Amino acid sequence: MNPKISEPRFPEAAMTASRQELSNLPLNTIYGHIPTDLSGHMFIIAPVGSVASGGLPNPNATHIFNGDGMIYRLDWQDGQVTVKTKLARTPCYYADQATFKNLAYRSYQFRDHGLLRFSPSLGLRDEVDIAFLAFNTAKDSQERLMITYDAGRPYEIDTSSLEVITPVGANTEWKPFLPFSYPFPPVLSTSHPTFDGYTNEVFLVNYGRSLSNFLESARFIYDLEQLPQEFEQLLSAIAQLLDNNPLRIPLGMFSKFSQGVWQQLIGWIENLLGTAMPDFVYLLQWDGVGKLQRWQLMLPDGSPVRIEQSMHQLAVTKDYVVLMDTSLKIGPEQILNNPIPDSLETERLLRRLLTRSQQPNSPIYIVRRADLKADVTTVVVRPAVIPLETVHFLTDYENPDGQITMHTAHLCATDIAEWVRKYDISKFDAPKSAPLWLGGMLANGQMDVGRLGRYQIDGETGQIRDAKVIYDTRRHWGIGFYACQEKLASGLPPKRIDNIYWQSLGFWPELLTEFIYNLYENYPYRAVPLKELLQREEAFNRPSSLFRVDTIKMEVADFYDAPSGYFISSPQFVPRLNSNGSSTDGYIVCTVFGGNNNEIWIFQADQLGAGPICKLSHPQLDFGFTMHTTWLSAIAPRTANYDIPVRQDYESLLNQPAIQQLFAEAVYPHFQ
């Protein structure tokens, strides 16, 4: 007789986070011992809500990614570890704080709208809560560090104090995706710019989408406090019809209809405003000292590159820069789902009509670095398409004979741009279950198993020469964050990636909502049949896992499965002190969540299967769902001279006396 399958809850620890800053807090060792040859400084970043929420969870159940970035630095020395934390206090952070707390500026306040935080008067918050990029110039005596975000400029921080120092590029060097003058211009960028350690160049991206004016078009309803009761009742009836119809009136039809209406509305607005919202993609290059250089990317037919979802990541090889239209969709459905926070029925209806599934393929655009000349303004890309959607990818630096090696994690039918709403129910318990308690968490109930890919791509033609894709139907659910050897003993990056450490979130039935099931039930690259997907016994046998992929053999060489009720996140490779230089001679440090506990676990990189050798925690260290990480061998007060003066950066954008006063009182004093 089979033992009863336990049904663990998704860890509450991932849903809560404190905004309290810590200074040199010693962590408690709750298991094992801290290796004496673990040294340097590990950085972790995570969203921790806004000034309006006071931490996580967000009270209105908005997306957990929508929040200020908290920087966590773990300092390892002689078998001890302390932690220092600091909120990423950008200029828009102080404006957000002032408009929330000061009644005189309340009419300008920011509000949460899905993935983003926006003010109709001030513009878009740059929450810099996703990732890091370590870089340096040839003259720098120390590594420098920037924090990044998909919808804003990166900012450089001081690695010692963790203070925000300067944006990368002035406002005038970035093109907003809305042609309106906001004090905080809405900018689309990437959370993963890339650095070439051999040439000391940073590559970034600045793009816009022709439908991106959904923010401006929605501002007419942002100011509404409530809907008339009769309209609420009408919306409720329509939503109930869509919910209860056993034939599920073809949502594709509604989606196509609503998208058609949306396109007409956009055209009407553009005509009314007398300006178009063009598609554009600029590749940016920065030397860490001067201004950004930029090139507009064009397709071979002469049309501009068009991004349908987002550009979450870039990669660089010796001769090419690789860009991808990634499966983190950012569109009207991520913003307009909650235009009127007090009306759940409006939210439900708009979600039904506007939400589309993400693209099942990954368009990539290859730029020849030799074409990036100072005397040209446009560059032609080589396009290609990889079947299966991708959020994160890496490339080998070497590209012999123009052949690019790309390593990918495919989040198949897994939509991290969707999140659990207050009215969502689990597909496993529908239709009788109560609404879920996970409001704001990723609706990461994967509708298919994730996959790992290695591709050989001709950099000159874009042709895929070879493809190898693997997956494990038990362990590869929700493959997300990665780690690998970032630097050799010389300080330079390896020219070939031979091992990558990936983590998977695991399969949590609570996160597979009925809405997400309906959105992805017709996924074209299905590996796990729908019937098998919903087998309850199988659902609780898909653990979160930490595993190492041998990229040469293209196989999983080592793995560790988290205990039931736990998941592993944010892995970071830390080379062993006096390492032999191999990509497995070191440690994997990661965050782990289980129940109400959030912890730091340490694994030997070459023995994941042996389990963690150390676990650390502290009651005051309350981090929620963590994002990306990096590691520096040393930290020091910043000495670089690059700086964008805040007053000079914003003064030309402030057209109203009251907003000028807001900046003078609440923003400029923090950046003297």
Keyword list:
5-stranded antiparallel β-sheet, disordered N terminus, alpha+beta, 34 strands, 672 residues, 29% strand
Give the secondary structure arrangement, pairings included:
Blueprint: E1 25-26, E2 28-32, E3 40-47, E4 69-77, E5 80-87, H1 91-101, E6 111-113, E7 116-119, E8 123-124, E9 131-135, E10 144-148, E11 155-157, E12 164-167, E13 194-196, E14 201-208, H2 214-222, H3 229-244, H4 251-273, E15 280-286, E16 293-298, E17 314-316, E18 320-324, H5 332-335, H6 344-354, E19 361-368, E20 378-380, E21 382-387, E22 392-395, E23 403-410, E24 451-458, E25 464-470, E26 479-483, E27 499-504, H7 514-520, H8 530-533, H9 536-539, E28 545-550, E29 555-561, E30 566-575, E31 586-594, E32 597-604, E33 614-617, E34 629-632, H10 646-650, H11 657-667
Parallel strand pairs: 16-20
Antiparallel strand pairs: 1-5, 2-33, 3-4, 3-34, 4-5, 6-7, 7-8, 9-10, 10-11, 11-12, 13-14, 14-15, 15-16, 17-18, 18-19, 19-21, 22-23, 23-24, 24-25, 26-27, 27-28, 28-29, 30-31, 31-32, 32-33
